[in-house]
Amino acid sequence: MKKRVSIFMTIAGFVILLGGLLTYGLGIHELAPVPRPDLIVTGTSLIGILLIISGAFDLLAGRSREMEIEEKDM
């Protein structure tokens, strides 16, 4: 269960990060009148990076714990 949540967090982070960058890069921010479109890009980039890091860290840390348990059982 925890592995699925970590994978979801990582994928959601990539989607949010790329979505924020693409909205600015493709000029979609011009369709909606936003006073400071750079804040949208910065915010979505930070949120995406944090989700990617936390999801990847959970995945990598979970594997090492499983390996330690298997080593103790042997």
How are the SSEs placed, and which strands pair?
Layout: H1 2-25, H2 37-73
Comma- or semicolon-separated keywords:
single chain, 74 residues, mainly alpha, 82% helix, rod-shaped
Query: Would you count the extended β strands for me?
Result: 0
Instruction: Report how far apart the termini are.
Output: 25 Å
- Helix fraction by DSSP (H/I, runs of at least 4): over 70%
Total of DSSP H or I helical runs spanning 4+ residues: 2
The proportion of strand residues reads under 5%
Average pLDDT for all residues: 81
> Can you tell me the overall shape?
rod-shaped
H/E topology pattern: HH
What is the rounded Rg? Answer: 18 Å
Query: Could you describe the largest sheet, including whether it forms a barrel?
Result: none
**Helix- and strand-based class?**
mainly alpha
Low-confidence parts lasting 5 or more residues at pLDDT below 50? none
Description:
By secondary structure, the chain is an all-alpha fold. Helix content is 82%, strand content 0%. The protein is built from 2 helices and no strands. It has helices at 2-25, 37-73. The radius of gyration is 18 Å and the shape is rod-shaped. The two termini are 25 Å apart. The relative contact order is 0.20. The mean pLDDT is 81.
